[in-house]
Amino acid sequence: MSGANPTGSAMGQPISQGDFFVCDFFAAVPKHDLAAMEHPLFSLSTRPDRRILNYTHNDAEITITPSVKGRATIFDADILIFCISQLMAAINAGKKTSRHLTLTAHDLLLATGRETSGDGYKRLRDAFERLAGTRITTNITTGALETTSGFGLIESWEIVRRTRAGRMVSVSVTLSEWLYRAVLSKSVLTLSRDYFSLRKPLERRLYELARKHCGRQPVWRVSVETLLKKSGSTSPRRVFRAMLREIITRDPLPEYTLVEEPGDIIAVRPQTLVDLPERAPQLSPEALEEARRLAPGADIYALEADWRTMWATSGAPRLLSPDKAFLGWVKKR
């Protein structure tokens, strides 16, 4: 066994197995916490970033102190996204949760689009170490409480079991109270599954900002200077602008398109806007319960939202039995 604080408790007391939340929701919808999407908590560098970051925006003040391993990267955040997604799926299903989680490393790697090779497991362990070692001091509000406090992105982690080949099988993670409070207050946003296919750090960061600030509104306009600050990029403005133009040309972001406008302004627009008609079909509690049986472990409310979107984009046909139509769609998935 290895990892930070192997007892899994901030006070050094062992945690009983019954106190752990087991991450076993199949294909949970990816979700990220709002504070991490709003502020540059994670490094965009592909090399160890050991600089202390002091960031102030409006009333938010953040100091991020890395460990000798370097600051947690935007790819390390995939672990948090996986944990948040699992917890939200449980909350939506009415199940009990805990900030102490047990997860299968293979499931995490698959869910976040990573290789399941030996190198993939090693990189996962390195990510755990950076997440636990990166310290944040901030007054950011989560769950309607504003506190100035210091904490790690995760409080502890532990490899519970290994294969003979040295690959981790089961991992326990304890999230910070700050992050867990954000989950309980549902201060999260859904991400596109294609987010994990973005291989450049700046592309991921731009998508997070677009998702947070643009959402479903027709357009979000932001100056290059502000975007540089909010992205967390350390590039000079002229270099950052050139990087933006290259991304605008390739248009790799899921769901959003960036356009350069006069005045050093970037306009962010959703690629498609689906407005659900007022007569959107309603599903009965019995239909949702049957869908849970047909798709065990799935986020049933996300399935419902996906089905309604599909219904709207197909012309919003009148349905004699929305329940039957929905359940038939779930079976085909």
Describe it for me?
This protein is α+β, with helices and mostly antiparallel strands. It contains eleven helices and 15 strands. Strand 14 (256-261) and strand 15 (265-270) form a beta hairpin. The two termini are 39 Å apart. The relative contact order is 0.14. Mean pLDDT is 86; it is low at 5-17.
What is the share of helical residues? 25-40%
- Count of DSSP H/I helices: 11
How much of the polypeptide forms β-strand, as a percent range? Answer: 15-25%
SSE run: EEHEEHEHHEEEEEEHEHEHHEEHHH
What gap, in angstroms, lies between the N and C termini?
A: 39 Å
Radius of gyration (CA) equals 21 Å
- Tally the beta strands: 15
Strand order of the largest sheet: 1-5-11-10
Low-pLDDT ranges = 5-17
Q: What's the pLDDT, averaged over the residues?
A: 86
What's the main sheet like? 4 strands, mixed
Q: What general outline do the C-alpha atoms trace?
A: globular
Structural class: alpha+beta
Which secondary structure elements does this structure contain, and how are they paired or packed?
Layout: E1 21-22, E2 31-33, H1 34-38, E3 53-57, E4 60-65, H2 77-92, E5 100-104, H3 105-111, H4 118-133, E6 135-138, E7 141-142, E8 145-146, E9 149-152, E10 154-162, E11 168-175, H5 177-184, E12 188-190, H6 201-213, E13 220-223, H7 224-231, H8 237-250, E14 256-261, E15 265-270, H9 285-294, H10 300-313, H11 322-332
Parallel strand pairs: 1-5
Antiparallel strand pairs: 2-12, 3-4, 4-6, 5-11, 6-9, 7-8, 10-11, 13-15, 14-15
